[in-house]
Protein 1
Amino acid sequence: DVKVTQSSRYLVKRTGEKVFLECVQDMDHENMFWYRQDPGLGLRLIYFSYDVKMKEKGDIPEGYSVSREKKERFSLILESASTNQTSMYLCASSSPLTGNTIYFGEGSWLTVV
Amino acid sequence: GESVGLHLPTLSVQEGDNSIINCAYSNSASDYFIWYKQESGKGPQFIIDIRSNMDKRQGQRVTVLLNKTVKHLSLQIAATQPGDSAVYFCAEKYSGNTPLVFGKGTRLSVIA
């Protein structure tokens, strides 16, 4: 089974802090994604990556950056956390071999106070 | 702009009844559609998918119908069970190497 692991399930950070959300997948997938999920807004794509050291902006990249130094790991970075970044963050991965299906992690709940 | 949306944000059904969750899409170039189920506190899980060259696809207790004429997608769940209670998301993929675009989700509540 595909396993996408998000290292932190629940985080509380202060405004202005730098926040790292880590994601690791164990299926050698080329593609990785970070989504943010808010009530009534569904899943919105922040950044994605189709290969190591590559990154593409999604629909809402402002206030975020990403890092993909290794194929299995995709990190989401909030350079200076703000209260409007309080949300659930979902990491996902896929491969051309899996077709268009993407596999999600369990999510990271971030609260910025 | 192009978007994926849902007709009903919440749906309540009696246990044992069939459920139908609807989704509208606006990008006629989309060539792939997928449904995900998200239980409380968990990440979305794949349910079923369909390509644009198909009208219907069946899985275990689930059926996805695609009507390209009116750009409409539906998920049918037969004999709905309490374990089906979740939020359901549809997603579309534009042609080419592009990420999935998700709708806002429908909450399905099963009444025992």
Protein 2
Amino acid sequence: AQRVTQPEKLLSVFKGAPVELKCNYSYSGSPELFWYVQYSRQRLQLLLRHISRESIKGFTADLNKGETSFHLKKPFAQEEDSAMYYCALSGPRYGQNFVFGPGTRLSVLP
Amino acid sequence: DTGVSQDPRHKITKRGQNVTFRCDPISEHNRLYWYRQTLGQGPEFLTYFQNEAQLEKSRLLSDRFSAERPKGSFSTLEIQRTEQGDSAMYLCASSRELRSTDTQYFGPGTRLTVL
């Protein structure tokens, strides 16, 4: 069965420091991977997806099929990056195959 | 606001009562999803609709849960004979149909507390 793990419940970094939020997955086929973010008092929203290969708000994520990982990275953290981050996986068909990880709370300290 | 809306935002009920939640998706979106989120966990898929058809339902969903989308627009999620374990945030999301990985837009959620 597909599964997404995020080993850190809480990650604290200082402003300007690099950030890496870890995500590992298990899936037998070729998954689509996503990062969702939830800022304080806001809705859950898509941050980026691996197929787009884009950088959003300075964040990037590379799918490593060998290590089954999709870590989220940003070279210089900003205080406004403080939020809850969820890694998610989808198979070719929606529904049961769309699985979220437990989330990592990022706290960027001044 | 043209985003996904959910009503009510909060619901407190006693064990054994029935509750119903409503979700209004973004108007041009064909797909609508329901998720449940408990403390410390990510959203867990419950069910989804394409237009009025309920295409998939989680195996974890008991028969006390039922969802409808009668006209392919808004959807309702009903929980019968609520239990304390049903206490959670219930999230609704919608997306277009163009492909399976289209962006899901989430609503603010309905927080259910079962006493």
